Amino acid sequence: MATKAKSDVKVLKGQEAEDAILQYMKKMNRPFGAVDISANLKGAVPKATTAKILVSLADKGAIVQKTYGKINFYVANQNDIDSLGADELSALETECKAVEEANNTVATEVKTLQSELNKLKNTPTDIELEAQIEDANQAIVRLSETLGPLRSGAPLMSSDDLAQLDIDWKRWRPEWARRKKTFTSFWQLATDALPPQDATALAEDLGIEFDTAEHTSLERGPLCAVPGHISKPNLKRKRE
Questions:
Q1: Is the dihedral of CA 179, 185, 187, 190 positive or negative?
Q2: Which of 4, 38, 174, 237 could make an S-S bridge to 47, C-beta 3.0–4.6 Å?
Q3: Rounded to an integer, what distance in angstroms lies between the CA atom of residue 119 and that of residue 124?
Q4: What does pLDDT average to over the chain?
């Protein structure tokens, strides 16, 4: 069984114990019970001894005893407590105001520093800045390439050319969409019973070129969007 560690607090007895309790009561100047006083003195005066000393001090008038139910509380006799004069109270009030002003100043500084810290936290790091600069440089290159023909004096398309281009687009795109739909239907019928690798080999033998990811992205983009058309999800079940 583990032995209990010994306390380094010196146990007081007799007059020393009484003086220690009375001094503590005057210093704290608030009600205490015997258990609280013994605990606050770190066990320097045992609980049973503390209770006896408190009763003795109360009988002497050094402290005042108050009983609430079955519990006794003790407080220093207020007649023995030195009261502060008007000058001392005024000096304390002045000191309190000075401390309060200092606290307010420190609080303002803390608020300012906290605001600066938040700004620093929201500021991009060196690595993030390098990435942003790299993105900006790439954007400059792309835009420069776009502006290259204009800077070299390439002729611009006239309004008539643009209008004709729009007419041709509206004319031939539906035809392209119809032909693609027809091809897709026949191709699915022809390769439905074939394994994927055989269908791929057949397409290579016939020289068929399917849409690339770039074509698919363009077809789904705003350029090919039908005005007023809202795409609906495909609810058809895929063939097992």
A1: negative
A2: 38
A3: 10
A4: 83
**CA 39/CA 32 separation, integer angstroms:** 11
Residue type at position 70: K
d(CA 188, CA 208): 14
Pairwise CA distance, residues 222 & 232, whole Å? 16
Contact 75, 31 (CB under 8 A): yes
Contact 21, 66 (CB under 8 A): no
The whole-model pTM stands at 0.36
Q: By 3-state DSSP, what share of the chain in percent is helix, strand and coil, each rounded to 5?
A: 65, 5, 30
pLDDT (tens digit, 9 = 90+) per residue, 24-57? 888 888 888 889 888 988 888 888 889 899 999 9
**Is the pLDDT reported for residue 133 higher than 90?**
yes
- C-alpha 191/C-alpha 208 separation (Å) is 13
**Which has the higher per-residue pLDDT, 98 or 43?**
98
